[in-house]
Each structure stands twice: as structure tokens, then as C-alpha cells.
Amino acid sequence: MPLYTFALFLELERQAYVVDYKIAIGAQLMLLSLLILSGLSIRAPRQIGAPLVSIHSPRAARIAIAASLVIVFGATTLIISAMGAYTWGSRYILIIYIIPTILNIISGDAAGQTMPRLTETLISQSNAAPPAYLGALSGFTIIIGHKTGYDTFWPFVITLLMFTLHATFCTDHTERSPQSQLLWYVTGAAQAAAIMYFEI
User: Fold this and answer.
1) What CA–CA distances, in Å, run from 6 to 36, 69, 130, 141?
2) What's the farthest any 2 CA atoms get from each other in the chain?
3) Residues 71-101: pLDDT tens digits?
4) Spatial separation of the C-alpha atoms in residues 19 and 17, rounded to whole Å
5) pTM of the prediction?
6) Would you list the domain boundaries of the chain?
7) How many alpha carbons fall within 13 Å on the CB side of residue 179?
8) Do 167 and 178 touch, CB atoms closer than 8 A?
């Protein structure tokens, strides 16, 4: 999802004629390389599934992947800022995914391991990462349009379609209820919009 957000932002910048393609593509390739290295360094056993997707993955695997991704997102944000690669919205592309990554630690089966009273709640019925990442993308799209004046109506509609498809087709062994996805989606969108709107 962060890579998709980079691609979306690149297109919005292209429309405004303010993007340096060489720097932009270099930054995206750097992020891709770091994400691949991060994924290779943390391998969950096949039976528990990927910590960002399977609700059955334990808390330890979720903490490990969250720590790895937060480091990657934070480091890449600082490097891109030092490069001066983009305009206003670029510094938020990775920051908005840090909170959903951390929230994923207390979702799915890991919710009961963290706090037993969460075992049968909506929080334990899906992984936070997929819908919260999509929500963060929606929040990013809305605020980019608001702050810069770019036309982001159709990109926002696409984010809603992506969420709808995910919520519709995720009801297999990795999810117990699609309704819980709305909670994570709204949380992801709200935190992204707040971070960008108040420019912390």
C-alpha cells in the first residue's frame, strides 16, 4: 500500500508539473528494496500465516513485523526529506502507515493474547493492517486534495472500491467478519487525515 501511495502521489505531482521523475522513482525503488529486505528478515512459520494478513498470527510475529516496518517507514521518510524529493504531501506518505502497522499488534487472535477481554470483540475478528492501510490511503487522498487543490475525486473513489472489494472477499480463513473491517478503515482514515491536516 505505501508503494501504491507513492505511485498515486507521483501521478498527482505529474499533473501539477512539479515532480522530478528521477528522484521520485529512485525514492520508490529504495522503499521497495527496504520492504523486501524487511520481509526477508522476518519469516513467520507457514502455519500461522503472514502477520499483516492472517488473524491467526501470534502477537510476537506481529510485533516483529511492526518494528521492522516502522523502522523502514521512518528511515525512508527521513531520507526522502533530506533528498528534498517531493512537495508538501510527500513527507506523509509513509508516516500515515505507522499507526495502522502498530494497531495490527492488537488485532486478530493476538487481541486476546494482549488483553483477554478483547477475545470476542470486533477488534479480534479481523487484522487491522489491510483495512486500516486502505483507510489511511483514503485519508491521504482527501487531505491532499484539500491542501493542494489537486483533483483527487477519482483516486478517492478508487480507494473506496479497493476497501469494498477487500471487505467483500476477505471472509475466508483469515477473517471472521467483514463488519469489523469498517472499524479499522475509519480508524486508518481518521488518523491519516488528522496527521496531515494538523501538520505535526
Assistant:
1) 16, 16, 17, 12
2) 52
3) 999 988 888 888 776 677 788 989 999 999 9
4) 6
5) 0.85
6) 2-198
7) 2
8) yes
